[in-house]
Amino acid sequence: MTLSEVTGIAGDAGNFTVTVKEAPRYVDMEKCIACGACTEKCPKKVDSEYDAATGKRKAIFVKYAQAVPLKYQIDAENCIRLKKPGACGFCEKVCDAGAINFNDTEKIHSINVGAVILSPGFEAYDPKPAQVWGYGDFPNVITSLQLERYLSASGPTEGHLVRPSDGKPVNKVAFLQCVGSRDENLCNNGYCSSVCCMYAIKEAVIAKDHVPGLATSIFYMDMRTHGKEFDRYMDRAKNEVGVRFVRCKVNGVEPAGSTGDLRISYVNEQGRQLEEYYDLVVLSVGLQTSKETMALADIAGISLTADKFAATSDFAPVTTSREGIFTCGTFSGPKDIPQSVVEGSAAAAAVSEVLAPARHQLSTEATFPEELDVANEDPRLGVFVCHCGSNIAGVVDVAAVEEYAKSLPNVVYVERNLFSCSQDTQDMIVKRIREQKLNRIVIAACTPRTHEPLFRETLKAAGLNEYLVEMANIRNQNAWVHSDTPAMATAKAKDLVRMAAAKVTYGTSLKNISVPITQKGLVIGGGVAGMTAALNMAEQGFDVHLIERTDVLGGNALHLKHTWSGEHIPGRLGKLIDKVIWNERIVIHKQHEVVGVEGFVGNFRTTIRSREGQTATIEHGVTVVATGGSIYSPDEYGYRRLKKVVNSIEFDKLHELKEKHVSSANTFVFIQCVGSREEDAMYCSKVCCTHSVQTAIRLKKEDPKRNIFILFRDMRTYGQREALYRQARKMGIIFINYELHGKPTVTENGQVLDVEVWDHVLHRPLKIVADMVILASAIRPKDNAKDLAKMLKVPVDGDGFFIEAHAKLRPVDFSTDGMFVAGLAHYPKPMEESVAQALAASSRAATLLSKMAVSLDAIKAIVDEKNCDGCALCVDVCPYKAITLMDRGDESGGKIVAVNVAKCKGCGLCMGTCPKRGVYVAGFTMKQISSQIQAALAV
Amino acid sequence: MLDNNKIGSVMIVGGGVTGMQAALDLADSGYYVYLVEKSGAIGGAMAQLDKTFPTNDCSM
User: Fold this and answer.
1) Min Cα separation A852/chain B (Å)
2) A501-to-A497, A625, A813, A938 alpha-carbon distances in Å
3) For chain A: N or C, fewer Cβ within 10 A?
4) Which residues of A649-684 are buried (b: 16+ CB within 10 A; e: fewer)?
5) 3-class DSSP assignment, residue A192
């Protein structure tokens, strides 16, 4: 439901009535074919919201080229006709589809649902009202979002970085961090927006890629690159790409004469006032909750934090203050894409916990018409040539490709589409297949990687077997890479279409393979992440086995006292453990380790061994890896050698026990980044800055006379944690910045410790006489993670953390189907992120466990019994261990190979290796491939 | 409330990357989903981004 807003939520968890107001689109979605004729004729130009006002759109517009739904809309505020009846109306005149409806009206819907998820997102801070750094006054001061649009191929300058004031190329660009973040004066956003440091680095790297020789400088307070692989990215940006980082306080941006250049004045770390000149200044704007979203919170009746984000608990990070209403994404605090995606899945898991009894109550399976048998028909090919807007048609002469396709053997129908993937074109293709009795289809468009599933569905809808389609990639592998040579690109497009037609001519109907799912989960690791995942799966109605290596549940959380927001961990942990123990769907295996893993999605067999050596095998459909992490034991700063040097967890215990060294101590020194962000461990442990600041605050509260120093590299109190850092500074806790090349030293001096650190503000060494030194030790992966990874056949990174399927979009899935990861095993993270990830893993698992069977595609190796002589060459090359050698079981006494279709990925290595044509891949038969090759060579 | 009075559908307010992920998971595990979006198309802020790190993948 687009152009829609929630105006009321009545009822209770399990049964809400939501009122939704749908604004008029003034374009009939059923009729609009997104041809764009209306926009072309529309005389009214306004700033494009999508382009963050760097470009223009018309009053009738589509949000962006790949928008879903790809339907035009009229902006009533700016439409001449809607403002003045009788005027303009050009769009209506040119719309052949008759889709324009100026009489469209607002509609009110009342919808009954069991739960509500609020994911309204953020708005970028607008620096205009406060004229931050001259934004709004100086045209060459832009926001980071605007730079994204300038850098984008779909942006106003098609990816060419030019100055807004005069269109001149940019040579020197400055990024100013923390605009609309960590600032209570100009914008009242005291929190850190968490994402700007990283996106600024990315934009700088990409801008340098666009403009060779571009000088980029990032002016910052602390670089907060705390996510997975972020520090490495920053390191590469600094040392390989040449992005300059300047820790400073900027105090002015002024125009340098009338050239459009800008002068930045700042105070560097040594306290010196400096000036530099730039031709473009980018403001790294923060994230904030919009007024509309605050109104939504009011309608939903949920509480917000002081920073105006949805209030949640660290142990229930997607649960709002109103039962049955959940939240995810940046509404509950600034966060990056992976964490937002994690929370999306987590919210789904939380909903499912409430609504599990009503699962499958309202959902329907998509139904398709009965499949036609085309085996005995002569091939009748239909070719659809996609313009992809101007992506293809802007380079390739698509009309010529269309004409050429008509001349190919067996081709009976050819058509061009603006976007072959749009919904209306899909419907049209179905119609054409029926009308023209087509039985093989070529789609000349983009990549099958993203779009083949869509076209397969289209064929199914027309009653054709879904494997009778072939895609010719005339965009990614042609129009995009040969944009400078359009004539040759057109010739290549013809070649690709000819090859695809040749291959699909010999295509046959194939049947997907259905594999039953064992509806049980297995969770490895009984810490907070593992227990949360197990409990959620159980509450969703699935049986779960929980494997824990030690004799207690709780993991690392057993050593923790408070989350960053101050929630008491032992209390919450105890409740969680109780729930897990008492849940009858959860079988707990303490003092057990995984020793063997077999099988595939839906059908895993895991062997576990007890401490006494007894083994058991568990059959299950999904696996969640939540093996946790451990604290790094440093060899520096006198740790282990000096009694008064302890790590933060040890200190918490001593502090709680009121141990005499702690209670009598007066001066405390915290050293940050111990074992983090160094050559061998180039990652941030994410939790230590906040932990140290929290401990320091507690010490200072107990006795304000205590001297507390925190020696840090970058303070990474990201998100709403920034409030703690602010409080600590106000309380008089002293923060001293050190660099990796000037690490502090700790030496024993009688009853006290001498801590020396190079103060590069004062340009001299600083000596602190300390009673206690607390090391913020890194989080390391568990020592057995690599062995487990090998058994599970999932990857770990150089640091030893498990690698997810996709850093952004599949943050809890492994690339192996049916396996998921959560918690510290994936990367260091605080409580609420571990819990969210665990819920997300459970949600992803439930998408499989809620089905009786999983459908695997039909592109699988098939053994030709006549030809296979059992030489077994294919057995060794198969990377998925899907092929086994067995006896033929007949009088010949010979051997033959067999393929496990559930393990086979259809890669074709076996087919390429086989000297006897004894194995082939369905959909890629020798006949299909050879005819494709012959077509390639026959010009 | 009795379990059998629960409604097997969910409303998601906001069609950005987060809302879409929640919608997909719920639809894939047996619930009917209403995805409510204020603007004319789903996609949210991520659709405005050029590329994403660390892979520099296109955001689309």
Assistant:
1) 11
2) 6, 45, 36, 13
3) C
4) ebbbebbeeeeeebeebebbbbbbbbbbbeeebbbb
5) coil
Per-residue tokens: A430:
């179905």
The packing angle between helices A648-656 and A688-702, to 10°, is: 30
Q: Write out chain B residues lying below 8 Å of A329, CB-based.
A: 14, 16-19
Distance CA A725, CA A714 (A): 12
- Residue count of chain A, please give it: 939
- Residue A372 Cα, gap to closest chain B Cα (Å): 28
Look at A7-21, A363-377, A692-706, A874-888 and tell me which has the smallest mean pLDDT.
Answer: A363-377
Provide the CA A20 distance to its chain's centre, in angstroms.
29
Does position A750 have pLDDT exceeding 50, yes or no?
yes
Residue A166 near residue A142 (C-beta atoms within 8 A): no
Cβ neighbours of B26 in A, within 8 Å: 348, 351-352
| Token duo for residue A911 | 């087919």
Q: Which amino acid is at A458?
A: T
Report whether pLDDT(A70) > 90: no
Under an 8 A CB cutoff, do A850 and B29 touch? yes
Residue A105, number of CB atoms within 10 A of its CB? 9
Residue A616 Cα distances to A527, A530, A602, A872, angstroms:
22, 20, 19, 32
Q: Which residues pair with A543 in a beta bridge?
A: A520
- Contact: A340, B55; criterion CB under 8 Å: no
A427 touches chain B (CB under 8 A): no
pLDDT of residue A217: 97
Residues A543-594 have pLDDT tens digits of 999 999 999 999 999 999 999 999 999 999 999 999 999 999 999 999 999 9
> Is the predicted pLDDT of residue A799 greater than 70, yes or no?
yes
User: Three-class SS of residue B4?
Assistant: helix
**pLDDT tens by residue, A296-330:** 999 999 999 999 999 999 999 999 999 999 999 99
* Contact predicate A816/A597, CB 8 Å: no
In A60-211, alpha helices (H): 80-83, 90-94, 144-151, 196-210
Question: Do residues A437 and A431 lie in contact, with contact meaning Cβ atoms separated by under 8 Å?
Answer: no
B5 vs A14: CB contact, 8 Å cut-off?
A: yes
Mean pLDDT of A466-480: 93
CA-based R_g, chain B, Å: 15
Residue A673: CA count within 13 A, CB half-sphere: 25
Asked if the model's pLDDT at residue B30 lies above 70, the reply is: yes
Residues of A in contact with B13 (CB under 8 A): 6, 116-120, 296
